Amino acid sequence: MALPPTGSARPGEAASRLDVGVISAGRVGSALGAALARAGHRIVACSAVSDASKARAARLLPEARIMSADEVAAHADLLIIAVPDDAIGDLVAGLAGGGHLQPGQLVAHTSGTYGVEVLRPAAAVGTLNMALHPVMTFTGRSEDLERLQGVSFGVTVDEPLRMVAEALVLEMGGEAEFVAESDRPLYHAALSHAANHLNTLVNEACDVLRAAGVVHPERMLAPVLSASLDNTLRLGDAGLTGPISRGDAQTVSAHLSALSAATPESVSAYLTMARRTADRAIAAGRLSVDDAEPLLGVLATRDQGDAR
């Protein structure tokens, strides 16, 4: 799929490789820039303020010149905006108002929360706008480039740019999943719920295991968590195992007593997840309503006690 250069009349007409600018050389921007360079595009400029960003740019974007955001935008056929979500609107407004964007220029941000509406000031100039969000966590190291292979990108674009956006994602090694503008907050909430809260859940479990005297909780958890994740992704709610799915009220009660004594800060999270797990187990037919009644009674009683 050919991609349009700056100033081209129609998205998708034949073009040479693109001059790419990246604002900024954070973990996401540097990884996507490196992926585009591997696909044959030229990473001509990037912005980098901190020492860590400058080192990352030197490592992953060695051909890029370090410039201000305004200068990066002015040099790019394709501008990748990889700044924090809350900074995108003001940045784009400043670039557009300052005359640093050109008609026909491709502009893509990497936020999961926003679609293309946040790029409206750029659209007023005549840029071609895309939201390209890689569904992956990044470390800022070289392995990030390999992790992009096969990764889904949440893509929001106007219809004429669908093929261009999909081509760019494919060149970076990913697969495009198109998300409507109005669905972006829900889409991002789901991803944050899964990825961020999984981190919290696993670290909570490690803390509780340490309280139980386990020296290396990560070694103990790795096999069972890997199996559980695989089962869940393949089987959905049918992959659920454990005391909730069996309706073991006494076991859950014992869990809550132990947590209250050793790590009371974990009780509320356990209760919330146990209730939601019970709801899903009932809906999936893994737990009957009759078997669930004693379990739900334990959770309700403990919740009232925790509230007091």
Give, in order, the helices and strands: EHEHEHEHEHEHEHEHHHHHH
Termini Cα gap: 62 Å
Helix content: 40-55%
Q: How is the quaternary structure best described? A: single chain
Task: List the strand order in the largest sheet.
Answer: 3-2-1-4-5-6-7-8
Mean pLDDT comes to 92
Proportion of strand residues = 5-15%
Count of helical regions: 13
Structural class, please? Answer: alpha/beta
Radius of gyration from CA coordinates: 24 Å
Q: Point out poorly predicted stretches.
A: 5-15
Question: Concise description?
Answer:
The protein is of the alpha/beta class. It has 13 helices and eight strands.
Describe this structure in words.
By secondary structure, the chain is α/β, with parallel strands linked by helices. The protein has helices spanning 27-38, 51-60, 69-75, 85-97, 120-125, 143-147, 162-171, 184-211, 217-235, 243-246, 249-262, 267-283, 289-307, and strands at 19-23, 42-47, 65-66, 78-81, 106-109, 128-134, 152-157, 175-178. The protein has an eight-stranded mixed sheet with strand order 3-2-1-4-5-6-7-8, sandwiched between helices. It is elongated. The termini are far apart.
Defining key terms:
308 residues, alpha/beta, 8 strands
What does the secondary structure layout of this molecule look like, with pairings?
Blueprint: E1 19-23, H1 27-38, E2 42-47, H2 51-60, E3 65-66, H3 69-75, E4 78-81, H4 85-97, E5 106-109, H5 120-125, E6 128-134, H6 143-147, E7 152-157, H7 162-171, E8 175-178, H8 184-211, H9 217-235, H10 243-246, H11 249-262, H12 267-283, H13 289-307
Parallel strand pairs: 1-2, 1-4, 2-3, 4-5, 5-6, 7-8
Antiparallel strand pairs: 6-7
Helix pairs in contact: 1-2, 11-13, 12-13
